[in-house]
# Entry
Amino acid sequence: MINAPGDLTGKCAVVTGASRGIGLAIATELARCGASVVITARKPDPLAAAAEDIRAAVAGATIVTSPGNAGDESHRAEAIAAAVELGGVDILVNNTGINPIMGPLMDADLSAVRKIFDVNVAGTLGFIQEAYRAGMREHGGSIVNISSVAGLRSTGAIAAYGASKAALIRLTEELAWELGPGIRVNAIAPSVVRTTFASGLIAGDNEARIAAGYPMARIGEPVDVARAAAFLAGDASAWITGETIRVDGGMMATGGA
# Structure
C-alpha cells in the first residue's frame, strides 16, 4: 500500500540518538505522521523523558524506548527486535553521532578517532544490518542517515568528526546501490542546528555571526531536519535513493566555511 504524502500510518520506525535534539525532533515528527517509533539513546532516564515529551506532543503516539550504546551489538539487536514486536521495522533513522575531540588530525588521539568511526560509521552499518536481517530484506523500507555538512567540506575544527560523516555519506551511496530497489537509503547533512551538541559553537555572539552568513539568516532548528527525515522516510520520496540532502540554510551555496 502506498501512503499519501506525509502519512506514515501503519509504519514502524527506529530512531537512534533520540533522547534530545535532532533525534528527538525526528522521532516526534515521525509519530506525528502516524508511525510507531522505537527510540534509542545511551542513558535510560533522558530517553524515558523523551518518550513522555513525544506522547505529550502527539496524542495517542506509540513510543517504545530501548536504552543502550549504539556501538554495542546486543543493544542494536534489542532495538530492532522491539520494532519487530510492533509489527516490523519499516523506517530506520541513524542519528547517533559523537565528537569527543576537536582540532586538526595531526594532533588527534587515534583511540578517540577509532571511537568516532566505530559509533558514527560502524554502529550505523550495524543497525542497518540488523534491520535488514529482521525483515527489511523481505518487505523493504527506508533508511535515513544523519550526516553533516562537515562531511562535505573540510572545517579544520572538527576534522575527525567530518571524516566520519564523509564516510557515512559514502556508506549511504554504497548501500543505496546494494539494497535497491526494495530498500531506499538516503542521508541528511545539516549545518549548525540549535542543539546541546552545538551549544558551544553558538554561545554568546557566535549565533548571530553564524546566522549572518546563511542566506536564510538563521541557524537551523531540530524540526528543520526532522521534516526532511519524514519526507525521506515516506512514500513521497519513493524514487529518491543514494542522495544526501543538505539542510543548511543555504550555507554550502555561499561557498563559505
